[in-house]
Amino acid sequence: MQIWLIPALPLLGSFILITLGSRLPKKLIPAVGAGSVGLSALITIITGYGFIGDSTKVIDCLVWQWIDVGGLSPAISFHLDALSLVFIFVITFVGFLIHVYSAEFMADDDGYARFFAYLNLFVCSMLTLVLADNLVLMYFGWEGVGLCSYLLIGFWYAEEKNGYAARKAFIVTRVGDTAFAIGLFMLFQNFHTLNIQDIAHQAEQQWMVGSQTAFIISLLLLGGAVGKSAQLPLQTWLPDAMAGPSPVSALIHAATMVTAGVYLIARTHVIFEFSPDALLIVGIIGTATLVLAGFAALTQFDLKRVLAYSTISQIGYMFLALGIGAWSSAIFHFMIHAFFKALLFLAAGAVIMALHHEHDMFKMGGLRKKLPLIYWTFLIGAASLAALPLFTGGFYSKDQILWLSLAGEHGNLWFFLFALLGAFVTSIYTFRMLFITFFGNEKTHVHHVPGSGMNIPLLILAGLSTVGGFIELPHSFGHFTAFSDFLKPVLPSVMVLEDFEGIEWIVQLIAAGVALSGVYVAYFFYILKPELADELKSSAADLHSFWFSGWGFDSLYDKLIVKPYVLLSNINKKDVVDKLYEAMVWLAEFFNRLLSYTQSGILRWYIMGIVLGGILLLTISLFKG
Amino acid sequence: MILILFIVILMVAGILAWMVARTSETLARWISLSALLVTFGLSVYVWKYQSSLEGQWIAQFILPWIPSFGISFSLALDGLSLLMLMLTFFLGIFSVLISWNEIKERVGFFHFNLLWVLAGITGVFLTMDLFLFYFFWEVMLIPMYFLIGIWGHENRRYAAFKFFIFTQASGLLMLLAILGLYFIHGGQTGIFTFDYFQLLDTDLSLDVARWLMLGFLAAFIVKLPVVPFHTWLPDAHSQAPTAGSLILAGLLLKTGAYGLIRFVVPLFPEASAEIAPWAMLLGVVGILYGASLAYAQTDLKRLVAYTSVSHMGFVILGVFAFNEIAMQGVVMQIITHGISTGALFVIAGTIYERIHMRDISAMSGLWKKAPFMGTVGLVFVLASLGLPGLGNFVAEFLTLIGTWPASHVLTILATIGIVLATAYSLRLMQKVFLEKTEESRSFTDFSLREKIIVIPMVVLIIWLGLFPQPVMNTVKKLIANQFNTEETIIIESDDDGVQ
Amino acid sequence: MSELQATSGLLLAGTLFMLGLIGVLIRRNIIFMLVSVEIMLNAAGLAFIVAGSKWAQPDGQVMFIFILTMAAAEVSVGLALILQIHHQLKTLDSDAANTMKG
Question: Which residue of A has its CA nearest to B423?
Fold first, then answer.
């Protein structure tokens, strides 16, 4: 099977939609958009079938030599192994479901063709990112997804604030990309190649653990990852990115693009392994982000913003997993998260659509009866996000991270405690959201009940969020490790410290207890005693608004960077350098004016001038000679 | 022989267009267009044919001109010149097409000037005689002065004077340096000649070389332009008619870059190595300073002009990094910037034709009325912020990766410039094409003629982004030769694997 | 010719020249200015004649003939200019012709 077809098909779809666009009959637009991604998904599944049983398999595919100068020779060439297979499966499959959902969701929009064109372009870029066999091509896809994210956040461009959010997303992630690019420069200087496999190979020969260069390069790559994955300190763009249509939030800002950072670190894990310090920083960033974003999510009232903060928080878990070297756990959580978060966003989108673009949760309520299917699927997603024990996918993936953060070879008690705190907060805000939206009294009338085009993807994703977890079961409970075995040829597994052998079930019990008690807290404050929640909110108003603003990062950056830059450039709008030349011009004109006074136009003055000049010359010649 | 044809066709067609315009203005336009199409066709033919050749030089043409002073009409073509010529004729075609309806007064004289500027530029890219080089340098200056001064916008006189004085003053410094080199070479060997190849062997003490190089550098960095000699550019670009802006940004600036590569570095290798850190610093200052100014502008053409200042910073940065990758990046930057900025000026021009303003705060939501224009605008905005897949990315990436070994700090600063480029590019997109549409304003999408202009540009910029290799192969020999004769700064690995 | 005659001749020429110069400087009527210029020319001519007779050389008289011819030419051009000025400005005041001042 030709794997270059996988990214090429969505590209073709996008090309058709851009060039023909609205001239296509309306039925054909989603057919092209979803069809191309569907075909890619099909090819992925067929290709992936060959990997089952033999995940050491690698497929390389050179499409053409892109650049070849002075030793730098990145190619448009793809590399498919177990790791990228997991990613392309999620991208094409979840992507396909979201395309199907969008066909109905966006049906009344003017930019129907434009939407699918961007979405297809996104899928193509994302596939390029994960399939790239060299870092330059990866950067290609990396920027491509950034572009599509920009285009889709600002999809409804008539609103100024959407444009602002879109630009913010692009620029903030570009800051991270800059670090990534500098990382590439350093890697090239060190290894004379940017091919990922060659780098891994040479790093093993040239570097030693603790190498300074490895540390710097790791940090630079981490910078790129942090930008794209909305981790501290570059997380500020993601909540605003919710200005885009809900399918976009589901696909780009939950399931796929924001996890590109996780992919980057997993892909270059060899480099990170040479620098334990850098790995520790990855873990710290992940932990800090997951806690901070969790608290921020507690205070939001916009349904999608809650989900956005929860995405940041969940990616924090993935970073934590990467930081402790639990590579396959990070990827496992990525996959399960893609399922349930896409589900949550799509369900939220259906709710928002049903209520005529109402985003405020507090204006919703009682939707359980009106939208039963949405309610049940949302509940499954929420349960998975909160990691309710046993029957949800999220439980298995998150539990693995919690366990390894304590017991893994790079584990650490603080990581574990904060992760546990994060899990507690997660289940509170998740069920707060669920209770406010679906329980209580009906506050807004339901206008539109979603049809089968939207329901079927929801059902499939709900199924996956549940069953998906069963492909990797903990040691204490079934001990089924299909997923990590599958990834083993690419990502080494983490060692569990001997001290902790056998106590895994205790950790699981704690985690389950924490999740359930979170649900109870939410139930207590939002169903049993809603007035208490308001009291709490008003008694800690400052803290509430601090959390609500996402820990004040936005205003900090605004004051520190954005405002001064804009001010400075506006002050200098007329270009201060030009003043230098204007001064020269002014000087010339000054002397010109001075001399032109003598040009009085009175003839007798000129004659006087001649006479005086004559006398002067005569006198001089008299005295000289 | 074909080399002289390039220049003669353009010059003759210019005079012809001027003469026939009295009877038929349309005929004058067609004459210019067909002359450019013919020259473009010729250059593409040469490009096809050159790949089979061995050496650096593809063709040469020498005719004695003033033998007693050692001045000859000497033209030569190598990969770099050829790429420059193709760019010249390519953009030339569009500069004629874009002025088809825009220019209504003195059509004949306009086309005369247009073609003579292009002929001058062609001469600059071809000549291998320094006296002739200076001659063509002036030939391209004077018609450009008329183009800005006669057909420009409201403040055209000021802009034209400023352009003229800056270029002329710096050009005179170059003439001094050329004469200095001529007499030193004559004194040493007894052969008084302006021939480039012979002057290459001049034995210069570092002290003298430094001064002579500064003379050449003056002309080129004013033209490029490098901060702080850039202030003629925003005025000239924003006041010139669309075709003028297209040629200024797309071609005239590139003569500066070409001069750096062709003359400054080969003639004065030691002196330029000595000045390299300062030149690179100026490049980075230009990148950041131009970007910050572009962010503040409200005049669309002025904004694009400042982006040129920013992008040309990469050229001088790469030239003085002295390695193959950076130099390839510079050549790519010259070509892709010519196309992308040219296209942005075309868009600015077509918007101006429709609503007679350049103030971006007064435009908004043009996408809804003109989705085709919006899409094309988007492509070139993205090109200007260096998105992979478009030619500009290849250029900037190669320049930066090549510069990294030469200076870490400057590379980091230049990379930050790309973030700033994102800021100003997206601001342009936002203000012009996005946000609320003013429904009452009538605004039509691109006409067929305008589509004929922009579609090849879009195709080319994408093609260069995905298949840059043919372009790089064309200049490979030149760059290889350059780095064989000099001390090459080999990329050294500073890994610490053996601690 | 005696010393005394030469001295008084030159004195006369100097006086005439000064009178002419003062006339040019203080008169605003352009015709009077022209007349004064003529006086200055003639003063110069007288000085040539005196000098020529003092050294018994013909050059002085040759120069005077030159001056005469030149004066005739100058007057014709000058009068033409005066006519034009009067035509354009409707006055003979030289200060009125100051439209080209800086």
Answer: A171
Mapping DSSP onto H, E and C, the string for A430-476 reads HHHHHHHHHCCCCCCCCCCCCCHHHHHHHHHHHHHHHHHHHHEECCC
ipTM surpasses cut 0.85: yes
Asked if A8 has any chain B CB less than 8 Å from its own CB, the reply is no
| Inter-chain contacts counted by CB atoms under 8 A, chains A and C | 35
Q: Which long-range contacts (CB under 8 A, 24 or more apart) does A561-569 make?
A: A565/B292, A565/B295, A566/B295, A568/B292, A569/B292, A569/B293, A569/B295, A569/B296
- Write the DSSP assignment of A53-73 as a string of letters: T-TT--EEEEEEE---BTTB-
What residues make up the domain containing B376?
281-499
Pairwise CA distance, residues A496 & A508, whole Å? 15
- Rounded to an integer, the average pLDDT of B168-174 is 92
> Which of C28, C36, C98, C99 is the best mutation test for A, with the most CBs of A within 10 A?
C98
- Confirm whether B195 is domain-assigned: no
* Chain A contact for B328 (CB, 8 A cutoff): yes
In a domain, B137, yes or no: no
pLDDT digits (tens, 9 = 90+) for A548-589: 888 888 888 888 888 888 888 888 888 888 888 889 989 999
Asked if B277 reaches chain A (Cβ–Cβ under 8 Å), the answer is: no
Considering the domain boundaries, does residue B119 fall inside one?
Answer: no
Max CA distance (Å), chain A: 124
Please name the chains neighbouring B, where neighbouring means 3+ C-beta pairs under 8 angstroms: A
For A608, the closest of C25, C99, C100 (CB atoms) is: C25
Please report residues of A whose CB lies closer than 8 A to that of C99.
601
The reported pLDDT for the residue numbered B36 is 93
Contacts of B367 in chain A (CB under 8 A): 157
B309's tokens: 């200042």
A71: number of CA atoms within 13 Å, CB side? 15
A599 touches chain C (CB under 8 A): yes
Asked if residue B23 belongs to a domain, the reply is: no
pLDDT tens column, A133-156: 999 999 999 999 999 999 999 888
**Mean of pLDDT over chain C:** 88
The three-class DSSP label of residue A132 is strand
**Structural domains in chain B (count):** 1
The tokens of A212 are what? 């300074």
